[in-house]
């Protein structure tokens, strides 16, 4: 997943805090640990006793907040922050969150992780009624719904709005007097609450952000919940009872940091289990196990332990690859000049290699890595993938919205094996994945969204239904892509 | 070695090429894979049929060459490049290499990796005779020696100069008609030659740079050799017969990339062997093995395999840590807010952990990591170090020039264990290190410089002798540092 | 007016074009000549056959459009542009215009010069009905009014909105199919139409921008008019008949470029006449006439010609003063270290100087310049001001909204003379100003707004009425300011 | 001279100070007033009780010292600074001055204004003896000469070096204990000494820099002098008696700021006299007088006064023209789109205009301005130039080193008139120039270098002799240029 084209992308990370004198700085450090969830832009809105100020820009969090003095403008003991994933060609600062809204009677900060499935129709409807949007983001729609609500009580307005938007969402809303967190009825995106030693409450997309700021984990936010945090503590409320846990399984497989726990399951451990399960599901006669860095190292070590094969560092990722603007020309690429990933000849030469990766999207990356290993002298390359084949688009926050880019939607495992040049190819079974994660849930879906693997979407698709149906008929060969 | 203070630092990486139409670009990609050897600045000098042009600046290679158009000024089919390590407080662009010298009768590019032990006296002597230096770098001195040589033949001038400088050095010298590479009589720094498919010759500090540009490894440059590459091919010459291989053992332990081979020994394999040897040398009753990322992961997996304990991802390094300008205030630090390294609670909680690291310099980092693991619930933390205790300064290119900063110079192993808060502490033995690397060498020193461990310097110390003798008498407690 | 504190500030410049293949570039050059009307930020929205794209940022136009490639994103044969004046402490990119609005059914670009007097109440009213604003600018309100209009025809919506906003405004509105320009019922701000040789229509805040792009002047936009330009040519329409020309007299006195004509009157000529009139109104026994550069040089040369005294370059302005970030410390300032303006000792030493300036706001600048001349050896300094005393705030687009900062609101001419240290002080009379400009107008106000001099506001003050009434009672001495 | 191509360029400005606690800051303000003498780069070297530190970079002084914190590194009570003129295509930071030299036994800062005529041969000779140069600047050579001098006493070394270099030069040399200023034997470049109220001594290229820092003028540095300033005061010494004042007349005509005095003559006054003399030398039947801004405004006002014609602002220069990166394309240029200079239609329409400019180099600029005025409706344009025709190159510091670019070297006045499209054309006579400046000097050359007008060079041309002789034979028509 890490070579040349990063094809699966999360949409955003959230961090919020209430009750710390250095709220914006703590938010900075929290967001820093969530940087893997989005690299296009970042922002923070701070709340200084009811006065909200914000700073946001394109770039990594370290660039956006390069200068200490920016924090002078972000005073206050509460803050929310956001890192945004780069959707191609839309790099406008207007879309960078949190949004800061100033009204004659109130101010709000708002940040969002996820994707609304009825955003297009909601937006059109609002515009027909005079609404003006200032971004392409589907975050803004919630604020319009809140402001136009006829309810009298503010929390009732918020709940009405939350019941109107559909799809996958985790929201952080900063008002002048409280921090509100809300999760969609399926809990597609993770969101956890913790508490710092000084009593400050923290909400974050992943528990790794709690650890980084030394906050103690309290609980995961649950589907349909809306959490209100203010100077009196935190209160759990619901905006709907109609919920069904279906957490995105790709969080465990690929997105989340290995040191995060989601619904009590450690991500590294889940991945290691996926590797173990893979080894049990398929016996391969080989010499060494090599993981594709960095996201597949846990699964690889699990595979190695279970299979008894040695775990080796056969692929090395350049640590300095971020922000490399100069790319090899086509000619240099053909000459084998590469930057991101190197095969370790001294390790793989003459060996039968089990190469563990987390997923295959278009197949081009896998093909390149297999080729890399063979050029470095590997005798055989057996590819094992710690997830089932990706066949269906996601509409809840991952950036695969067409089947055209999914090789497994259009090709059999054997065809894929041939395309990527592997000596054998194995995917983790769906049940193997469910068992490896081992989520304790009595609910349908075993608490996991596996729609990308089996097309079983936990919700209606609304604005995407038509596009989806059309995509089912598409038959695209790899070579056209 | 990777937490908060990076205390051991290499001084620079070299890359040179002769015979490729895109020489500067290939150099860029080569340097990119050597970025770990120096992050302060970078530069390239290109040779366009005798016309030399250069570009250099402070920053990572990706920043220095951020814009494609820079390469328009770096035309030609030969080039040399350099990445420079940041010595504190001296961040002047004047010191960034390669240096480009324009004379009325010739032009030269010059790049250097290493440290001269007689630089101060040579420089003073030259200045007394009218020489003007424009940098603090000890690279410039070679050019002065060449230009002032009374020899008639150019290569004789170069050899005379190489016999005048002492210490550790690898030089790349670009003339209008050839690329010259030279290595000191002890071969302290690695330097390898390879060849691209189109016939271009490549010289690089590490073989990983050969791999990245798809060049085939030909041979290591040997102590006392001077290599001349031009349109007729490459020629091996010597400037001295008085050589004694003593390659820096820290290259194997910590500096070099795991995918590099040095004198035929793969670095990852050497490190894995160090871990295995450690496990054989010391039996520890524990539950899991955790390596300090990234440099100790190989040793940790070796330790795990040899000991039979599971290898776990108990520490996670933030991939986005480079260029983070905002640091936690002292207050936030005390509250436990941290950025670079996280312990994985889900993995280490309740476990007896073997923590594998590559070295202990001042001890502060080790103490913090041990503490991190314990805060995350580790029941016991046993620290094993894949090198002997660092007791003596290095004068050949590593940035430890005083014993004051070396905890092992002043404290027993038991004292260090107590200081860092470990339950037990083991260092690899000197013989264990030599065996793990397994260099085939009949020479004294087993072909390795182990001076930082045992004070046995392979050369006179010249300008540093006095400082060294004084440092032997220093007795500094950890707490003063 | 040009020394240390620039106290009177215009709010913005506009440029629009329809029918030129390089519309955005021509807009750039037009805006460049309007840079004196605003230096905080700039932007351009281009229209490529109905597809609108924009670029805006903080900074001078030359910075905002520093890179040629920005224009690749601004294709199309129509464009509008804006330069914005820096109101203190509000340097957010959100306020930089033109605004670009994207709706499901249409896109618009909108730019504005002026100040609405009922902006606060309109905005509050809109927000109470669910509107969300994204800037502090009073430009956005027009778009909300248009989108919420119940009229069916688009131009009827626009006219309704124009009749709802009050105060001083010149708007440029880019739709997908036309460029619309509108002026408030008093014509407070100048706006002129021209035509390029290729037939393209151009609208600009000042005629100097027409000259720069070699467009022929057609006519001034008149109060209450709305101009529609499209591929069929341009059409003049009105949204109201209730108009009363009252062009801002400060445009002639200080803001506009001397090469611009406003309602047929050349600005340089008007200023020269002000100087002549001043010389006729007050005879001064002196040796030389010196203008404060750059805005008072025309008036000074008029004064010199009429009085027969020689016109001398007794004050020199540093041409490189823009963007100077380092300022003298208080200590250096006291030692007389200065940057912006120098007195020419060789010219003024021993002389009785008539110093011509265009206005006195707080008086601090005048005091410093008088002092500068005296320190350089001037025997006497007689200050003549080419406008009447500034006594009242402006609510139509100039940045003086309180009487507290106006020395003439609180002090007699004799008191001011003493404060600024002049040997004598004369202001131009109101009738002298009217005559010097010589606008051909039968209307009340002689076609000029002189409210800052006499408090006779041509419109109700709406949201500002209360603040204004309060300010009338304020009595502030210079020394408190 | 100011339209589109700036063809005559000064080479650099100098500022030095000894005895002020804020020496670097004062130097900054001094350099700021000398910015017109060079815009390519700037630097300051400060002396903190013998410890020299420096900062230099490409760009305007305001950019190079954009951040206050830079001055934290420039502590000390003495400093020298330099602004450098941009010679085409050589924008390397290596050439930006002052140079800072660190030797084992001493440190020096060195800055230079002028051009050495024997630089090439001196440099080659030094290189043949082992010297290494690090810039293309001819400044470095002086330091090599000083360091290689066999004299014992330091000032004797300096004097020997000053007697070895030939041509035009003003040097500032900062040692650890003193500030040394030296001027060439002809005094081609101006250099003045002043004193601040706190006693600090200041040396600057122009007296305007003294005024800006409120220093009192003491005296001009004279040809052949070397001034030594230290804590004991300042001492005047000489390195040669063989002197002959020949100050560059272009300083009066074009380069220097109008508020500067050179050898007691105020530059504005000299220019006004040139205008008066022109009016006396040639009677023109016209309506108005217009100067080309900014350098010809003084001459134009002199012409107006003497002729009795009104002085009008018929040409306006855009104040924001510096750093404009986007230029009109050829196509837009042909359509008349322009940026720098505008003709004021309201002023010149229907008028017979006397257009005053300071010089004609290639003629292209004059032709454009004449055309501009005619397009704006001028009935006649009579061009009067406040200097004699430029026919010969300069080798002492102005950037005209070939006759090929000088229209007057190849064409008669009548031919030039026709080329530039003027109705008549007059140049100031040589004697008129000498009289207008009115320098009190009994020496040959009347104390002025007029070589560009008459080819009478005050010194041998050394390395340039051959090139000069060749250029005399060149006959190039305007249309080839």
Automatic annotation (TrEMBL), chains A, B, C, D:
The gene is purF. Keywords: Glutamine amidotransferase, Glycosyltransferase, Magnesium, Metal-binding, Purine biosynthesis, Transferase. Binds 1 Mg(2+) ion per subunit. Signal peptide: none annotated. This is Amidophosphoribosyltransferase. Pathway: Purine metabolism; IMP biosynthesis via de novo pathway; N(1)-(5-phospho-D-ribosyl)glycinamide from 5-phospho-alpha-D-ribose 1-diphosphate: step 1/2. Its EC number is 2.4.2.14. In the C-terminal section; belongs to the purine/pyrimidine phosphoribosyltransferase family. The keyword Iron-sulfur does not apply. Residues 12-232 form the Glutamine amidotransferase type-2 domain. It comes from Pilibacter termitis. It catalyses: 5-phospho-beta-D-ribosylamine + L-glutamate + diphosphate = 5-phospho-alpha-D-ribose 1-diphosphate + L-glutamine + H2O. Mg(2+) binds at residues 295, 357-358. The active site is at residue 12. Catalyzes the formation of phosphoribosylamine from phosphoribosylpyrophosphate (PRPP) and glutamine. PANTHER family: AMIDOPHOSPHORIBOSYLTRANSFERASE (PTHR11907). GO terms for molecular function: amidophosphoribosyltransferase activity; magnesium ion binding. NCBIfam families: purF. Its cofactor is Mg(2+). One of its GO terms (biological process) is 'de novo' IMP biosynthetic process.
